[in-house]
Write a structure and sequence with these properties.
The complex is a heterodimer of chains A (about 240) and B (about 240). With about 240 residues, chain A is an alpha/beta fold. Chain A is built from 8 helices and 9 strands. Chain A starts with a strand and ends with a helix. Chain B is mainly alpha-helical. In chain B, strands 1-2 form a two-stranded antiparallel ribbon. In chain B, helix 4 runs parallel beside helix 7 (about 135-155), helix 4 (about 70-80) runs antiparallel to helix 8 and helix 7 runs parallel beside helix 11 (about 210-230). The longest helix of chain B has about 30 residues, at about 100-130. Classes of the chains: A alpha/beta (about 240), B mainly alpha (about 240). The interface of A and B includes residues 81, 95 and 96 of A.
Chain lengths: ~240, ~240
């Protein structure tokens, strides 16, 4: 279970997220939907303790992220703007992360295989394509076999096979009773993957519920999004 | 669940360092340059022009200390690459306690810097017959490395600390040494030269003990500022 409780984050005079409150339940894929700059990534950085909340708190299994003993064994995250140093080999990148949380070294090979990067394990990540870097990020998130998976824009750079793979993988992951929070600005992708949807625009939560409830009476999630968020979000999207 | 120990993040940091090619290149440059300078000083095959006629390079402190800037790049890379491609976000996701992360990283870089100092310093000092000075050279090298390390965390880059630390002795010391010797003598490079007993000029000389004190001050302030900024900043 992930809980945001009135999280506000200001950068100087700018309010990036404003009193964000929602919960993500286990056993379901929850989509965190909003345009670029709406506050998705900021919310996730606050959740992971990378940015300090101005007020409010974000909890995972009732604890702040920084209070988890071996956080990567509980939470796996793919974050925007958090990648490997290009000079380092893919396997070495995963090796230091695994060691930091006392995750067996054998997991490095397992997650590389899971994302189809076994053959590129000894390549320096600077030579990876965008899609390969994204796969490595997903492998990083899976390293600790976590109960909670947080993926920020996971389909960016993935080819159609990769997109299909991540979609079915996340459905299976949540199907085993685990918690999946999936952030994206791609509404079609979200409509195909999520059980629940949290919509954020201009730093505020504007809708939160089951996908079926959010889209009820609308031809698509995209139509529902614009109907729910009104002029404010249209301004953001334009 | 087993309690987290500092050994886990320290071991992770050691893997990070070991798998960074730039670090090995910096070490190779430092070892090669310092050994070559030691050989030249020992054999006196190259002499420098001076007011009183040609002198051995051993008297040119700034030249003899030059390899330290390749050596300190190891520590600068350790800190500065955290800001490359957003690695710091991954580091803090793995070790979210920032004090714990900083302690582990500092311990790892101290271990690596100490190990690196062996091939960098010992051949040079053996060739020059100055192995007895190992202690003060080690102190000068380590303290300059830590100064660069903290600076890299504060500057969030690799380039600025190396450029500033290496350019100051070339640009500032040579131009301002005569005008403001009291200021120049407490700059890191001059303090290091005083510590190893090779001040560039009597006007900018400190006693070796004072050099050690000043250099320790630079390293402490730099590591502290870098650490406080990492602890407080959003990443």
């Amino acid at each position: 279970m992930i809980e945001f409780k009135g999280v506000t984050k200001r950068y100087g005079a700018k309010t990036a997220v404003d009193a964000v409150t929602f919960a993500v339940r286990p056993g379901r894929v929850t989509g965190f939907l909003g345009p670029n700059g709406a506050g998705k990534s900021t919310s996730l950085r606050v959740l992971l303790g990378l940015d300090h909340a101005t007020s409010g708190e974000a909890l995972i299994a009732g604890k702040r992220y920084r209070d988890l003993t071996f956080p990567l064994r509980t939470v796996g995250a793919l974050l925007d703007g958090a990648g490997p140093v290009p000079d380092r080999r893919g396997a070495d990148h995963l090796a230091w992360i695994a060691r930091s949380n006392r995750i067996p070294r054998s997991r490095v090979g397992e997650v590389l295989e899971a994302v189809g990067l076994t053959d590129a394990a000894r390549q320096r990540t600077g030579r990876y394509s965008l899609g390969m870097r994204q796969r490595l990020g997903i492998a990083t998130a899976l390293l600790g076999d976590p109960e909670v998976l947080i993926l920020d824009e996971p389909v960016n750079g993935l080819d159609p096979d990769g997109i299909r793979w991540i979609r079915s993988f996340l459905r299976g992951y949540a199907g085993r009773g685990r918690t999946v929070l999936l952030s994206s600005h791609l509404m079609t992708e979200m409509a195909d993957t999520a059980d629940d949807v949290v919509v954020i625009a201009n730093g505020r939560i504007v809708a939160d519920g089951a996908l079926a409830d959010i889209t009820e009476g609308h031809p698509s999630l995209e139509d529902a999004f614009f109907a729910l968020t009104g002029a404010a979000s249209k301004q953001v999207w334009s | 669940m087993t309690a987290a120990r500092l050994t886990d993040p320290v071991a992770a940091e050691l893997i990070k360092l070991r798998t960074l090619p730039a670090l090995w290149i910096a070490l190779a440059v430092a070892v090669t340059a310092n050994t070559a300078l030691g050989a030249i000083a020992a054999t006196d095959v190259i002499r420098l022009a001076g007011d009183g006629g040609p002198t051995g390079i051993e008297g040119a402190g700034a030249l003899m200390l030059a390899p330290v800037y390749a050596y300190l790049a190891i520590a600068v890379f350790a800190a500065g690459t955290e800001y490359r491609n957003g690695q710091l976000r991954l580091s803090l996701a793995a070790v979210p306690g920032r004090a714990r992360f900083l302690a582990a990283k500092l311990l790892a870089i101290l271990v690596v810097s100490l190990l690196a100092a062996v091939p960098v310093l010992i051949p040079n000092l053996v060739l020059r017959g100055d192995l007895g000075d190992l202690g003060r050279y080690l102190a000068a090298y380590l303290l300059l490395a830590l100064t660069g390390y903290g600076f890299a965390f504060a500057a969030r880059t690799v380039v600025t600390p190396i450029a500033v630390l290496a350019a100051v002795p070339i640009l500032v010391s040579t131009t301002l040494g005569g005008l403001w010797p009291t200021v120049v003598r407490v700059l890191p490079h001059e303090a290091a030269l005083s510590l190893v007993g090779m001040p560039a000029d009597p006007a900018t000389a400190l006693s070796p003990a004072a050099g050690l004190l000043v250099l320790t001050g630079w390293a402490t302030v730099s590591v502290t500022i870098g650490g406080v900024l990492v602890a407080r900043r959003d990443v």
